[in-house]
Amino acid sequence: MAQDFFLDVRFHRLSPELEPYFTALYSFDVRCDPGAEIRDFLHPEWSTMRFFVRGSPPRASFVPEPSELTGPFPVSGPSSRAIDFSLTSARIWGLGLLPLGWARFCQTPACEIADKIVDGAKHPALAPFRQLYDLIDAYADDFDAVARKVDSFLLDMDLSPVPAQEQILACQAALRDPAVAQVEALAARVGVSRRSLERLCARYFGFPPKMLLRRQRFLRSLATYMLGHKGNWSKALDGQYYDQAHFVREFRRFMGMSPTAYAEMPHPILDRIIAQRMADHGVGVQTDLPTMLRYGGPKPQTPRNRVPCLSAD
């Protein structure tokens, strides 16, 4: 397992017209010694497309499944479980897809690839984005050029409203609100019946509303722990948990291990991203973002946003 490696994570801002559809565009550059491997875990997130344009694709799987080698264009569906991944030197571009983006561009119900990793070059749901791989690969050594080309490509897509747009946006906003703890309250915020909410969430969010609320509660707790209460899970617990035992059961469900086991294992990539966030005094965590940006903050790329390339020791 590599202990000393170069890591550069950059956030690239998309045009405002694209913000309702995509979480973020980012690049992720890692370099380590030949034969060395870096292992970490991605936390539950919305669907994310990843484009491996340099180096080798990773081994990855949703816990507790054994990891498998992915292709150069792996796409993870909306997730309620952690992704265990291992990689060597690589340059990766990532584009997160919000529920409204799924509704606008993907014909397959999101629940069909929830907690799955599929080949974006072959799966019919990702057909509108297949040209992105060649576009990114052609300009891979010029970060600014890739960002401009991707932004332009996405702006040329059909951005007209979808029939359920108002309900999708209302549901996403309600899920961000810690005060919304019950399915009935979520349905009231969205302005639909419980049965209609079930259909809406399965089609565009990937999971039943109860699971989405559980996931948000868990992610708030995990973010609080990662950013300020490492070593003390009790202080990180969201107020919706009955007690610590309740949280431990949920942690095992989402991460495939106990909180103690997770705390004791190395997190070489996330620890470096979080260290830079603390140095930059970032704003509060946004659980809608991909894991690689969630703890680093969605800030425009500047030299200070490059993650320090220091030894893990």
List segments where confidence is low: pLDDT < 50 over at least 5 consecutive residues. 299-313
Look at the structure and give the CATH class of the largest domain.
Mainly Beta
* Biggest pleated-sheet summary: 6 strands, antiparallel
Strand content: 15-25%
Please identify, by name, the CATH architecture of the largest domain.
Answer: Sandwich
At the fold tier of CATH, the topology name of the largest domain is Jelly Rolls
> From the helix content, strand content and strand pairing, which structural class follows?
alpha+beta
End-to-end Cα distance, whole Å, is 13 Å
Q: State the helicity in percent bands.
A: 25-40%
User: How do the strands of the widest beta sheet line up side by side?
Assistant: 1-2-9-4-7-10
Overall spatial form = globular
The count of domains is: 2
Q: In DSSP terms, counting alpha (H) and pi (I) runs of 4 or more, how many helices?
A: 12
Based on CA atoms alone, the radius of gyration comes out at 19 Å
Rounded mean pLDDT is 88
Encode the helix/strand succession as letters.
EEEEEEEEEHEHHHHHHHHHHH
Instruction: Spell out the CATH superfamily of the largest domain.
Output: Jelly Rolls
